[in-house]
Design brief:
This protein is an alpha/beta fold. Helices cover 40% and strands 17% of the residues. The strands form 5 sheets. Strands 3-2-1-4-5-6-7 form a 7-stranded parallel sheet, with helices on both faces. α4 links the parallel β4 and β5. α3 crosses α4, α4 runs parallel beside α5 and α12 crosses α15. The chain is globular and about 90 Å long.
Length: 696
């Protein structure tokens, strides 16, 4: 009975959401992206700076805050407002939010909570509008600082569709406490400021041991400890920053006597970056074990660290706890050294870093990391990940060196959402851990978002024994539990055989595309050897299963192109009336040759129809520009996240899937004869929209 009630509730909510969506479309209710922060978004504090880097374009953004800390100064978003909820009950908070938004409705929410009011506002808006919510924790206010109660934090995190954290330590701490997944998104830097060119400081600067420091110091105690160290060392520091002098007390003259020359705020970013590049090292003061502010030391990653690394590659010296977020980041990426507030340790660190050999080595490490810290495309990554409810690819997840009892998964090329094999592999194994991913080719600019470790292995021009040695070297330190191979190239099979034999583990295969029966890309001898070593053989559809069983005599089982359960559509949708009247359908997925495309265009034009193409259109063979395709009745829409694609397909009267003709016009018969495009199953399961197959 309870199960039936739950199902009925689910179906009712789905129907109501569908009805409301149609009403909103017909009424043209304005939608926007809502970004919730604790105070004004501006250049005077770290959260504001980071948000402006992530979202350089603020059109259709409404910014909501719970407090004014900078006299209301804000230059972010189409519209911004400050709402306080102190003393209000939860129903009163809901009413206040609803009155403020009026007819406007958020499309999605990004919340960066610092105060309890930020959490309450986020929960209220999520409850009212039931839209996707991403929570990005930049500052701990719950584990080491106790300013947000556990009950409210738990409700916020459990209602979030995506959770991000600013440091690995913060992600791990919140994941452990609340048993919810978190994804790392460190502070990022404007792409135009990033350098991967290593510039060494002059010999005079290295010999003078004159360093630099930027940004704020968050505790008076940290400043006093730093002054003591610098005063008793043989170094000097230039300090560029705009600290809050209300709670950080110092005399600039006395600081200078201690060896810290206060330069104040440097408004010209290029000038500041040049000062950083000239310096032999940069200081990052954090708390020691006895200090206040452990939430800042243990879980925070100061934004100045990625900024310095990405813009100047200058080596870093972290003063304070060695187990904090800043120290761990610097040590993990070999960007500098960590020492206590101890004069001898500090002098040794400066001596080490100022040597020309170590300058070269440390700056090269920084230059290598720099491109990963770019803000370019991060807004899109956040919104796409929110659409998926998971990171669309592990943009900032740094790979371990080896795995224990790994599942080795072998694919022809990068695993991502830009092609069918990648999407299917991610659907089946996307939430699995301990995966070692191996691919034979790069076809998508190395855009690969799968596995704790991923490598590209080619066996072209080498012997079988050399292939085995190459595989062994790639897996050095890793132990293997089992192997799963989706073969397309001979190299995929060679890698699978090598892993199977080297580690004596079970091997399974899943054949999605024929490369042996109707074409001879993979030789019969190699395919027979491979299939004989497999403990499990799978095929996506009966035709390809029967072809391989008949040719090789081995048993195959069916594993079709599956669809995520959450995207299944159990109801009949009515298509958009305008699309019906204009005879506009949807074209989804890949087209495998220019000839197929030409035949499709001729058919569309002859029928007086139009097609909206959802899929990857970046093909080396594609001769037509988007404008030329549009003139032929095909409007390129690009790649959509799966949940958005499913919603779009429900609005069309029909879907077209082109295949080959299996005659003299067909230049890809291997796809025409034995392929079953997974997009057919996806379209039928998620939209129930009729499908037209063009071809034989």
């Amino acid at each position: 009975m309870l199960a039936n009630t739950s199902d009925n509730q689910k179906h009712l909510r789905y129907e109501l959401a569908s009805v409301f969506q149609q009403i909103e479309t017909s009424l043209n209710i304005p939608k926007f992206d809502l970004i919730i922060s604790h105070c004004e978004v501006n250049e005077r504090h770290g959260v504001g700076i980071l948000l402006k880097r992530i979202f350089p374009e603020t059109k259709e953004i409404i910014s909501l805050r719970s407090m004014n800390l900078y006299d209301g100064q804000q230059n972010f978003g189409d519209y911004h407002l400050c709402l306080s909820y102190q003393g209000l009950s939860y129903p009163e908070i809901l009413l206040k939010v609803q009155q403020e938004f009026g007819q406007k409705k958020p499309r999605r929410i990004l919340s960066i909570p610092y105060f309890t009011d930020d959490c309450l506002a986020t929960i209220a808006i999520k409850t009212l509008y039931n839209v996707p919510l991403c929570t990005y924790i930049m500052d701990d206010q719950n584990i080491y600082a106790h300013n947000i109660p556990d009950q409210i934090m738990r409700e916020l995190l459990e209602s979030s569709n995506l959770r991000l954290g600013i440091s690995r330590q913060l992600c791990d701490a919140y994941k452990e406490k609340y048993d919810l997944p978190f994804h790392l998104v460190p502070p990022v830097v404007e792409h135009k400021l990033i350098t991967q060119i290593v510039n060494l400081p002059s010999e005079n600067l290295r010999q003078s041991r004159h360093g630099v420091m930027i940004g704020n110091i968050w505790r008076q105690q940290w400043l006093e400890q730093l002054r003591t160290v610098i005063k008793n060392s043989d170094t000097k520091i230039d300090w560029y920053g705009n600290p809050n002098r209300d709670w950080l007390s110092f005399s600039e003259e006395e600081l200078a006597q201690d060896g810290i020359i206060f330069k104040g705020f440097e408004p010209e970013e290029k000038t500041l970056i040049q000062r950083l590049r000239d310096a032999p090292y940069a200081i990052i003061p954090v708390g020691s074990e006895q200090d206040e502010g452990q939430e800042l030391t243990l879980l925070s990653l100061p934004s100045r660290i990625p900024f310095i690394t990405a813009t100047s590659n200058t080596p870093l010296i972290v003063l304070g706890r060695e187990d904090g977020g800043a120290a761990k980041f610097v040590e993990e990426h070999q960007l500098g050294l960590v020492c206590d507030y101890d004069v001898n340790q500090f002098n040794e660190a400066v001596t080490y870093i100022c040597s020309i050999e170590n300058q070269q080595k440390l700056r090269q490490k920084g230059a290598k990391l720099a491109k990963l810290l770019s803000a370019k495309g991060l807004a899109e990554w956040i919104w796409e990940s929110l659409d998926q409810g998971n990171a669309v690819f592990s943009r900032f997840e740094y790979s371990p060196k080896y795995l224990h009892n790994a599942d080795v998964i072998i694919t022809p090329n990068e695993v991502n959402q830009r092609h069918g094999t990648g999407a299917l592999v991610k659907r089946i194994f996307g939430n699995s851990s301990n995966i070692f991913s191996i691919r034979s080719e790069n076809h998508f600019g190395e855009e690969h978002d799968f596995g704790e470790i991923s490598v590209h292995l080619s066996h072209k021009g080498i012997s079988r024994s050399e292939s085995f040695q190459k595989v062994l070297e790639a897996l050095k330190g890793t132990t293997v539990k089992r192997v799963f191979c989706v073969p397309y190239f001979p190299d995929d099979i060679l890698t699978a055989i090598a892993v199977k034999e080297l580690f004596n583990v079970p091997l399974a295969t899943w054949i999605m595309d024929d490369q042996n029966v109707c074409t001879n890309r993979i030789s019969d001898d190699l395919m027979r050897e491979f299939l004989s070593k497999c403990s499990l053989r799978l095929a996506t559809h009966p035709e390809i299963r029967n072809a391989y069983e008949n040719k090789y005599g081995f048993k195959f089982w069916l594993l079709p192109a599956i669809v995520p359960d959450k995207l299944l559509n159990l109801y009949v949708e009515s298509p958009n009336l305008q699309l019906c009247q204009s005879k506009t359908g949807a074209l989804i997925g890949s087209i495998w040759s220019q000839k197929w495309l030409n035949l499709l265009c001729e058919t569309v034009i002859g029928a007086g129809a139009k097609l909206d193409w959802y899929g990857n259109t970046q093909y080396y063979w594609l001769q037509d520009s988007p404008e030329e395709l549009l003139s032929k009745g095909i409007n390129t829409k690009g790649l959509f996240p799966e949940n958005r694609l499913a919603q779009q397909l429900q609005t069309y009267p029909y879907i077209v899937v082109p295949t080959g003709t299996l005659d003299e016009r067909d230049d890809r018969p291997e796809f025409s004869k034995l392929s079953l495009p997974g997009r057919i199953i996806f379209a039928l399961a998620t939209s129930n929209t009729p499908v037209i197959i063009l071809g034989s």
